[in-house]
Amino acid sequence: TTTSDLVVVQILVGDRLPLLLLLPAAAGAALIVAHSRGTPQTMKNPEFHDYGDDPVAAVVAELAGAKEQALRAGVSEDNIFVDPDFGFAKTPEQDWEILKRIDELHQLGAVVAGMSRKSFLGSFLEQPDPLQRLGGTIAAALYLANREVEILRVHDVRQLRDALSVWDKLR
After folding, report:
1. What share of the chain is helix, strand, coil (3-state, %, to 5)?
2. How far apart (Å, rounded) are the C-alpha atoms in residues 130 and 134?
């Protein structure tokens, strides 16, 4: 496919999902269903962080529901990717648990993960400056690649490409 033929739509799980699914369904576009709760203004509120005893199972269940809506709207299963959306309506502890158990998302199909400069990495590394979190980003990306995550969404493309090339050479 050429760049001009590639259309990717990312949609956050939420109330507007059914209406927004009409675009990728009609266009035959790839769809990234990204997990979140609330709005960008409210997702840091504690009420949106209540996932019960198992945040991974809750995120998988919510993404499964969104994927089912996408399938009913006519989006091809091959065009649907799921993204736990680290940092969106999650505590750092929940992000770590989802990262450790990322394999469980594969039951839904192809997985996208964005780990670049995330605040939970910064908290762990005691690095408040997002631009200084490259080491943590690379480590997390290599872990995700080892867990066969299909797409890594990153800011520092060249550095991640180099790290993944060396990692791949050593496998």
Report:
1. 55, 15, 35
2. 8
Sequence-distant (6+) residues with CB within 8 A of 44 are: 89
Radius of gyration of the chain (CA): 16
Q: Residues near 85 by Cβ (< 8 Å), separated by ≥ 6?
A: 12, 34, 35, 36, 114
- Say if residue 18's pLDDT is above 80: no
Continuous segment of H or E residues that includes residue 10: strand 8-12
Per the CB < 8 A criterion, the answer to whether 154 and 115 are in contact is yes
Q: Residue 109 and residue 30: Cα distance in Å, rounded?
A: 13
- β-partners of residue 10 are 32
Residue pLDDT, tens place only, 103-149: 999 999 999 999 999 999 999 999 999 999 999 999 999 999 999 99
Categorize the per-residue pLDDT at 14 as very low, low, confident or very high, splitting at 50, 70 and 90. low
**Residue 35 tokens, joined:** 């997990």
Query: Span 57-85, mean pLDDT?
Result: 93
Q: Biggest alpha carbon distance in the chain?
A: 46
This prediction has a pTM of 0.87
Looking at the chain, how many residues does it have?
A: 171
**Residue 32, strand partner residues:** 10, 81
